[in-house]
Amino acid sequence: MIKILFFFILTAFYCNVSVSQVPLNSSNKSVVKRNYNDITGILGAFPDEINLLLTQVKQKKERSIQNILFIEGILNNRRVVIAQTGIGKVNAAITTTLMVEHFSPQQIIFTGIAGGINPELSPGDLVIGSKVAHHDYGTVTPDSMIVRPTRNPSTMLENPVYFKCDSMLILLSEEAGKSIKLEQITINHDARIPKVIKGIIVTGDVFVSSEKTTEHLRTRMNAEATEMEGAAVAQVCYQQKQPFIVIRSISDNANTKASHDIRSFYQVAANNSASLVMAIVKSIAK
């Protein structure tokens, strides 16, 4: 009996040793396989960023998960699930994770407003994200901010600094942007039709209202726009092998007038971003 007991203890010991010696970056921890459902996930931080979408959704069905409301239905002949993330990267990551886990959408689209970094952008203009990056993750030095890559928690390997948006979604967005009808913007009594461009969007847990910061983000990161959720969504999607894209409409120019401008142009910017998303969804449904 003692010999048998000793055998089981010894066996358990060697099994534990063998498991503990598996490196964190081994393939069994780095590969994520996803079985996607025939559904598109749509996220926005503020109520007004998703309200226009919700008015067009048919056969609505609400589902609360961890006190976050997910609304399923049909939008432009496509099954969708829509949720409001709330402001900031942590809220965005939580909601994205729940959406991926419980709905397994084929793709995730983030829609909303942003501060313009490119000086040629004006309120109402749209930016189709080609890449998304954290601008506030890294090392703060006496005279600069050195942006560094985040890490995948399951492998401890570095993520890319710039998360690439899905190439097919970029193409669909660009095609939709050529024919979409957007709300005009009136600035200083001058009405103009917003333009649609593609470029880098950067994310931080700060509302940028500084010419110096916008110049830094433009020079160091080649950013077109800045906001507070996109890179968190992108990081979750990247780590979970989930196709995604971030769509943003400019509400201000991230300068000292940003707080004033966002109040003036927030609604039009939110609607223009949602309008492009609806056109993208329509293309996906074809």
Q: In percent, how much strand structure appears in the residues?
A: 25-35%
* Number of H- or I-type helical stretches: 8
State the end-to-end distance: 69 Å
Identify low-pLDDT runs. Answer: 1-30
Helicity range of the residues?
25-40%
At CATH level 2, the architecture is: 3-Layer(aba) Sandwich
Question: Nearest-angstrom radius of gyration?
Answer: 22 Å
The major sheet is characterized as: 5 strands, mixed, barrel
Shape: globular
The helix-and-strand class reads alpha/beta
CATH C-level category? Alpha Beta
Strand order of the largest sheet: 5-13-12-6-14
Average pLDDT, all residues: 89
CATH names the topology as Rossmann fold
Within CATH, the superfamily carries the name Nucleoside phosphorylase domain
What does this structure look like?
GO terms for molecular function: adenosylhomocysteine nucleosidase activity. Its EC number is 3.2.2.9. It is an enzyme of class 3 (hydrolase). InterPro entries: MTA_SAH_Nsdase (IPR010049), Nucleoside_phosphorylase_d (IPR000845), Nucleoside_phosphorylase_sf (IPR035994). With 286 residues, the protein is an alpha/beta fold. The chain has one domain: Rossmann fold (3-Layer(aba) Sandwich), CATH 3.40.50.1580. Helices cover 38% and strands 30% of the residues. The strands form 3 sheets. Strands 5-13-12-6-14 form a 5-stranded mixed β-barrel, surrounded by 4 helices. A two-stranded antiparallel ribbon has the order 7-8. Helix 3 packs parallel to helix 8 and helix 4 packs parallel to helix 7. The longest helix is centred in the C-terminal third of the chain and has 28 residues. The chain is globular and about 50 Å long. The termini are far apart. The N terminus is likely disordered.
